[in-house]
Specification:
Blueprint: E1 2-10, H1 17-28, E2 34-42, H2 49-60, E3 64-69, H3 75-85, E4 90-93, H4 105-113, E5 118-123, H5 131-147, E6 156-163, H6 164-171, H7 180-186, E7 191-196, H8 210-224, H9 227-256, H10 264-297, E8 304-307, H11 308-326
Parallel strand pairs: 1-2, 1-4, 2-3, 5-7
Antiparallel strand pairs: 3-8, 4-6, 5-6
Helix pairs in contact: 5-8, 9-10
């Protein structure tokens, strides 16, 4: 009998963690050949999420494990913590707000049994989502698929089931600035996509603002695309050619109409134009240097405050030592 471990990042999801468990429990009531448990990762929530997780664990026992961060490190760090602490055969990654329907889990299991390494949920509609967010999302997928070697499926979500082999491969990538969708694509493995309709949050408000999503998209773009650096080289070359052409034009015009030209406006415009280009180029290069700087620090991706998974393992190990001594 295989064991499925469900990793759920949580940030201010007090009202959702228990309903999510109940929804998953109802799904697994009809699945007889797989054991299951949920590993919640509390990403420094400021509401009563941690208290709710403690209460849920008291009621449900080993079906519930949780990790609690010392502060908010972000969803990407929570995903990494959940995957690195998972131990069972199959791992499901899903959100706490029930926008990822647990009813898809049986479909995921079928896909894995068919020989796929990963089964993911692909949103076929964005009903209820602002139009500008949908348009920006489509544009992001189109751009990143063109300028990188990855292929991100339009509408593909983080909600997926993975084999232990794929999870281990994802954990080999230890960069601090993480973009999980890109990492999952980069490691390869065959993925089966299961379509589903967009679902509204069970409770609360989304933690992703428009500008937060833009920053996330930019982070993913920088993490996997070197195109901006190459574009800087081409831009510099184009500017040089344009400057040469403009110089030739100015020289010829000055010969034909020497009395009409002071050169003041031309100089100011060129200075402003070239100054803006230089600042833009430095900004792009600086973004990559900043990533190098952060990686060289080797800071931990997250810091735990509570980890019931390790506590359970330590308890089992301690019990085993006592039993050996008694024997």
């Amino acid at each position: 009998m295989k064991h499925i471990e469900i990793v759920v990042p949580c940030y201010n999801e007090e009202a959702c963690v228990a309903p999510l468990f109940e929804a998953v429990e109802r799904v697994f009531a009809g699945i007889k050949d797989h054991e299951w448990s949920i590993l919640y990762v509390n990403d420094g929530s400021r509401d009563g999420t941690l208290d709710e997780l403690k209460r849920l664990k008291e009621v449900k026992g080993d079906r519930v494990q949780y990790i609690s961060f010392a502060r908010n490190f972000g969803k990407e760090s929570a995903i990494y913590a959940g995957l690195s602490n998972s131990t069972w055969d199959l791992v499901v990654l899903m959100d706490a707000d029930l926008q990822h329907p647990p009813e898809l889990i049986p479909e995921f299991i079928k896909g894995i049994e068919e020989g796929y390494d990963c089964c993911g949920a692909c949103r076929v509609s964005r009903k209820g989502e602002p139009l500008i967010r949908s348009a920006m999302s489509r544009m992001f997928y189109g751009i990143i698929n063109r300028v990188t070697s990855m292929h991100l499926v339009q509408g593909g979500s983080d909600y997926r089931m993975m084999t232990r082999q794929m999870v281990k491969s994802i954990l080999l990538l230890t960069e601090r600035e993480r973009f999980t969708k890109g990492i999952m694509s980069w490691v390869g493995f065959e993925t089966k996509w299961i379509p589903y309709e967009n679902v509204e949050r069970y409770a609360g408000k989304t933690k992703w603002s428009f500008f937060g999503l833009v920053r996330y998209a930019w982070s993913g773009f920088i993490a996997f695309a070197t195109t901006p650096l190459r574009a800087v080289t081409w831009l510099g070359s184009i500017i040089v050619l344009a400057a040469v052409a403009f110089a030739i034009y100015t020289f010829i015009d000055a010969l034909n109409h020497p009395e009409q030209r002071t050169g003041y406006a031309t100089i100011i415009l060129m200075l402003l134009f070239l100054g803006g280009i230089i600042i833009t180029i430095l900004g792009v290069i600086g973004e990559y240097i900043a990533r190098i700087y952060m990686e060289l620090k080797h800071r931990p991706i997250y810091i735990e405050k509570i980890n019931t998974v390790k506590e359970r393992k330590d308890s089992v190990h301690s019990d085993g030592e006592v039993s050996d001594a008694e024997n």
